[in-house]
Amino acid sequence: MARPVWSGVITFGLVTVPVQLFAAVQDHAVHFHQLQRGTGDRVRNRRVNERTGKRVDYDDIVKGYDAGDGRHVVVEQDELDGIAPGRSQVIEVRGFVELDEVEPAFFSGTYYLAPRSDEYGRVYRLLRTALAETGKAGVATFVMHGREYLVVLRAGDDVLELHTLHWADEIRDPRRDLPRLPGRERPGSKELDSARQLIDAMTTRWRPEDFEDTYEKKVRQLVEAKRDGEETARAEEPPEATNVVDLEDALRRSVERAGSRREPARTSGAPSRSGSGSGPRSGSPDGARLLSDLSKRDLYERAADEDVQGRSRMNRQQLIRALSDRHRTRTAS
């Protein structure tokens, strides 16, 4: 069972929802201890006084801001807690925006929100459903572990999600900060057409479970091989950069290779991935109920079958509405 990392309330307007915050991800990385080469002895990090070299207890450590010339401004933790006592318990929604307005560079971390107890489930469900049906995200701020965060709240399938964001002044300007970027002249039309064809040929559905962290897998294999006294093979070197002269040929061959790997198109009589034709569809009397029983992944696949535009940005409720509207339009025509 996950443990909460923060507890407080969400406020929007005059409505308050007591909630708990949970990490949405868990680390799967291989972790190593630090050892002294040749001895195998553990290496430990200790807090020591820089001047005396003596160990310092954790309770005797305070924060110090470097004021220059070797001087520090000492700040106690209770002083930091005292400047925002109420805000450390409140996720204050300032407004609502379209989620796709938030540039990906701003996103930092993801958390789940749950009602603090069953009695708050109704208000929690109201906020989640309203966000799902409007397609909006709440922009909010709150304080956690001594830091203030800018966040967005959005509706997941059955849960409220909280995404921490970077502040605007933390986002670097690539034109100013990167050493080089190409100019804005438009590529040649033939090369651009080939690049578009390659993107079309490689377009697929978003299935995160189809991907794995191959580096961590190889790290584990390395550890196991060394433990068993086996030899390990080095990875292949990265491919060389594409020569500008060969660019068009490389694009053409890439399109051909990607096209040969695509799954054959489904014939008109083939069954849908979302289920056989025996069950009620969205247009039958039980259609709405059936759609509401499907997972978001199944709804997305059905939306792909129906060529619903903008489906990649839709949440579960929006997919249900779009599929229902598509069937009503088709029936009316």
Written description of the protein model:
With 333 residues, the protein is of the alpha+beta class. Among the domains are: 6-25 and 83-169, Ku70, Chain: A, Domain 2 (Beta Barrel), CATH 2.40.290.10; 189-203 and 249-262, no CATH class; 287-332. The protein is 30% helix and 21% strand. The strands form two sheets. It has a seven-stranded mixed barrel. A two-stranded antiparallel sheet has the order 3-4. Strand 3 (63-68) and strand 4 form a beta hairpin. Helix 4 (189-202) packs parallel to helix 6, helix 7 packs antiparallel against helix 9 (316-332) and helix 8 runs parallel beside helix 9. The two termini are 51 Å apart. The model is unreliable at 264-289 (pLDDT under 50).
Considering the chains and any ligands shown, give keywords for the structure.
single chain, 333 residues, alpha+beta, Ku70, Chain: A, Domain 2, seven-stranded mixed beta barrel, two-stranded antiparallel sheet, 9 helices, 30% helix, DNA recombination, DNA repair, Prok_Ku
